[in-house]
Amino acid sequence: MNLGPHAAFIVGSYAAAIAIVAGLIAWIAIDHRAQKRRLETLEARGVTRRSERAS
Amino acid sequence: MSALAALFVREVRLAVRVGGGGGIGALFFLIVVVLTPFAIGPDLALLARIGPAILWLGALLASLLTLDRLLTADLEDGSLDLILMSDTPLELAVAAKAFAHWITTGLPLVVITPLLGLLLNLDAGASAAVALTLFAGTPALTFIGAIGAALSVTLRRGGLLLAVLVLPLTVPVLIFGVAASNAAIVGPVPFGTPFTILCALTLASLVVGTFAAAAALRQGME
Amino acid sequence: MAQVQLEGSGLTCVRGGREVFSGLNFAVGGGEALLVTGRNGAGKSSLLRMVAGLVRIAAGRMGLTGGDPERTIPEQAHYLGHQDALKPSLTVAENLEFWSRYLGGAGGAMPALAAVGLDSLAELPAAYLSAGQRRRLSVARLVAVRRPIWLLDEPTAALDRQAQERLSLLMREHLASGGLIVAATHGPVGLDNARELRLGAAA
Amino acid sequence: MPIVDLANPSRFLALTARLMPWLIGATVLAFAVGLVMVKGAPDDYQQGATVKIMFIHVPSAWLAMGIWALMAIATFGTLVWRHPLADVAAKAAAPIGAAFTALCLITGMLWGRPMWGTYWVWDARLTSVLVLFLMYLGVIALWRTVEDPSRAARAAAILTLVGALNLPIIKWSVDWWNTLHQPASVVRLAGPAIHPTILMPLLAMAVAFLLLMVTLHLAAMRNEILRRRVRTLMLMQAQAAPGSAS
Question: Touching A: which chains, 3+ CB pairs < 8 A?
């Protein structure tokens, strides 16, 4: 696949796309793990939500 | 030193956390720079010529307008009373707070300057020059602004009064900041001359700003 | 703590052009508590803030004998004002650790938090605390850093009965260790041998 | 599944957990198909191979506007129907929208460089996207400075709706501002007509980007719901603590 004289810009664009999508995925994964950890420490300390306590 | 280190860490933590004003200065700077071409028009040659001026004015306003909360926040929740009472000299405490403000607000301005240079049609060298002058100049803006912050605490009136009081004091820094940038880009004058004067102004303002702000706080007590 | 003695003679306070009080004399020795009473606006808070160096002494003299000669009175005093000096976005432990290190303490927060019954909430942001809990976190500052003079501005405000008992216990321990307390208050503070200084009595 | 069923966060979390693997699979498949078609697309007679940048630039531009529209609809749910998940959806969408707007700007600049000789020429369309980017940063800043979720949600809702109303006006005024000053010689970004051999890969990539956005958005919403649970648990921990009655 010949990308012609401006190959750098085409590769640059796709690299930027990959970087930004990877950034989004990383942010979501890290945030998910952080919230899960905080939930577990809170629930470990016996703080339960009303709805759970009701069931 | 651990007292001052503790104060610095607290200030940075407050700025970074949700509810802190950390990124707001950089966002204000971005918006001011983006708005200017809408007023001036998309003429690239003109934008390139006044690029450094736009960036410097944006950084100046971004620095000053975010300094309002530097001391009033502590006044409102009672921390200022305890800081005034502590054995850590007030001058060093004000310096630590101003330095933390520069790290969380001034430095981000320098970091995003090359990006905004793209919008103003500045080439890499020009953006780097403006970023370097901003790096040297923003501490002066913060420490001079700290005087205004201290005055707005004692006068119990914040907001734009701070900027109005302090803007004239920042004129030298603005002049030599833009002059150094233009010297690097267009410059008959060698870059070194205005830049060293800018650095001298910053060093002077580090000292004057700290002592003046501390004095203003002490005078402000009823 | 060495035996300290705080005296004020002929003290005059002017705030906003209005003379709050003048010619005031008082003396508090180590192990003693002085309750400053009087109607609102009589200058109770102003007197405390004057000792804390936050309000200028218009006339008169204030001296501390027996304390650390190199340090001024404010540097040897704790001031518990109406506000709690807490940052909502910092956690309970972070708030206390900051003040402990800033006021020259060792920096350990847990023992002081335990003394005021907040050790279980150490990692909670202060924003989630109730008024009473924030008040107790503020009191924890006095326990974390040892200073001879305690200036308490209506210490029992926003505290429930159990917290008030805990506070008076801490105050008795402070007095027993040779410290002194000057408290602006309306009602009793749970201290038995406290002397009273009535302000604005002449009006 | 009736929509009201989703109102309950825990049921939404369960649904998201079940859907997530399928969504990820579909996204990866869609990108695979899209990229194969992009590889096969012919070069543009004028711009040569750089037209391949369009396959990222145009879908991310569509997403940038689409996500703001999604946020506007979600905030309509907050203000009008008080739907509990509406502001969660709006708050979760903002960073994703900002990211795709940034991608659109970056690819726009990389596409412009070979044509115009500089990265940024204040082209009418790109400038509107830049203003949209500022609006995204504004909404995110709003969410970050107000701690109480319900208060922040109402403020963000107003800002998003006003933003949605303003977008066409901004677009039109920027076009007018651009043509007023700009010499007419600027080559338009997307080219006059899109040849089917280029249109098909573009649509394939658009579908792939859409699936990616839906996946990321659901995941971000799940995080936001967990963040709010942590917040309520912390509030309850403070209230449950001994002697906290006062």
Answer: D
